[in-house]
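Quick one: C-alpha cells for this chain, please?
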Amino acid sequence: MRDQVRDVDKGHGRLEVRTLTATTELTGYLDWPHARQVMEVVRERQIKGTVQREVAYAITSLGRQKADARRLLELMRGHWRVENGLHHVLDVTFGEDACPARNPNTQMIFAVLNQAAVSLNHLTGCTNQAARARRFSACPQEALELVKSRVRIE
C-alpha cells in the first residue's frame, strides 16, 4: 500500500517542494527488525532560476496507523529543524567547526561545554545565543554566577 503527500514552501526567494512517498510493500524484503514503512523523500528547490533536486530514503518502525505520509513528513521536517537549529548555533555562534583543537579528547570537552552553555541558556529563557555569548565574554563573572545558581555541587 502506497501513501503520498506533497508540501510546498515559498519564501525568501525560493520555492521548495517536498514529496514523501511511503509504502508498506517493501518491508517484507528487508532484513531490518521492526521495519513498518519505507519512504522516499524528494526535495526540489528553485532558487533564482536554479533547480536543485535531492532524494533521500528512510525506514521507520511506525506503522501506517500511527503515521501516514503527512505525519511522516512532519516528523522528518521537525527533526531537521531541531538538528539544523542546534548545529547552526554550535557551528556559527560557538565556532565548533573552526576550533583549532586537534586532540579528540579536547574537541569532546569543548563540544560538551558548548552544549552545556546552549542548554543553560535555554533553561534561563535566552532566545539569542549569540548575544548571550557576547555578554558573557565581556562579563565572565555573570556567566559563573549563572552556573553557580543553576548547578548544585554536593
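The mean pLDDT is 86.
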